[in-house]
Amino acid sequence: MEQNIKERFHQMIREAESICILGHIGPDGDCAGSTLGVESYIRNLCSREGLTKRVQVYLEEFSAKFSYLPGYDRISHDPAEEKSYDLCIVCDCADDTRLGKFIRYQKSAAHSFCADHHITNGGFGETGIILQDASSTCEVVFDLMEEAYVDRDVAVCIYTGIVHDTGVFRYSCTSRHTMEIAGKCMAMGIDFGEIIDDSFFAMNLNQKLMLGRVLSEMRSYMDGRFVVGAVGAETMKLYGVSNKDMDGVIDELRTTRGALCAAFLYQTQNRQYKVSLRSNCEEVDVSRIAQSFGGGGHRKAAGCFMSPALEQDIRLLMEELQKQLPGTQET
């Protein structure tokens, strides 16, 4: 990482009297970890340097399984707060439309800085850094930080984001540098095993039952190269689960032997299907598929929203996949 980017990042923090930190709609582990990690870091910097600043994280409500993250109880979910900020730091967001209702804070801020790793991020805001080869935005923001101001609270957040965007270090985005950062976080005394178990693997009974339903009804296409699982709003209501309970399902589908690509579709409150996509091979770039439907992400993991017509959506996904896997059949 270029030193001048780190210097600019810290200069903007030190010069701002008020700072807001934003992430994408439907926050996941990397979004939550990077935003709250940056917040804890700024608080540490201010405490050590005797600075007084107003610092606020704005995010949509997300799974309570992340409630252990330092700063979780300080997050504002209210996009109507009549406040403006000198600096807006955006984490883990590929474009400003993904800020949802909180975009007003980014647009009205005097200055903005964007830290991200999405391949679909074309750059927005005043300045920032986008490292497409990084495992996670948490990896990106850790490299922006001066380690003297990194404490256990920051480490918990950073480790969480890395764990979630690497699938507990299983995905190809995991690098030696990723592991080095994880090791530094572990050295801060975090309970790394509990973070992995409780935030990545653990499901409540209703989630397990819903997962069983999805797996029992999953479908295989293109000679087993494409596997699809789906759950509608009525089924979600039957099992007592919500959009915030869908983590982990796509990973169960992805590990199907012989599958080169997996998709999981679930209905949101407006009846659209939220689509999670995963690739198991170099031939399939799921970010290209997601972009075809207004979404985005990474080569191996991406997402988008589609219509309430499930069968049509699956067919459209398959058509895009076939462009990358010519010669395969729809069976």
How would you briefly describe this protein structure?
The model has no long low-confidence stretch (mean pLDDT 95). The chain is an alpha/beta fold and 331 residues long.
Distance between the termini: 47 Å
SS strand fraction: 15-25%
Tally of separate domains:
2
Q: Provide the CATH top-level class of the largest domain.
A: Alpha Beta
Q: Would you tell me the overall average pLDDT?
A: 95
Class by alpha and beta content: alpha/beta
How many DSSP-defined strands? 11
Low-confidence stretches: none
Order of strands side by side in the largest beta sheet?
6-7-8-9-11-10
Give the SSE layout.
Blueprint: H1 3-15, E1 18-22, H2 29-49, E2 54-58, E3 87-91, H3 103-108, E4 111-116, E5 127-130, H4 137-144, H5 152-165, H6 176-187, H7 192-201, H8 205-217, E6 219-221, E7 226-231, H9 233-239, H10 249-254, E8 261-267, E9 273-279, H11 286-291, E10 296-297, E11 301-306, H12 310-324
Parallel strand pairs: 1-2, 1-3, 3-4, 4-5, 7-8
Antiparallel strand pairs: 6-7, 8-9, 9-11, 10-11
Helix pairs in contact: 2-5, 4-5, 5-6, 5-7
Structural notes for this entry:
With 331 residues, the chain is α/β, with parallel strands linked by helices. It has two domains: 3-201, inorganic pyrophosphatase (n-terminal core) (Alpha-Beta Complex); 205-324, Roll (Diaminopimelate Epimerase, Chain A, domain 1), CATH 3.10.310.30. It is 40% helix and 17% strand. It has twelve helices and eleven strands. The chain has a six-stranded mixed beta sheet. The protein has a five-stranded parallel beta sheet with strand order 2-1-3-4-5. The longest helix has 21 residues, at 29-49.
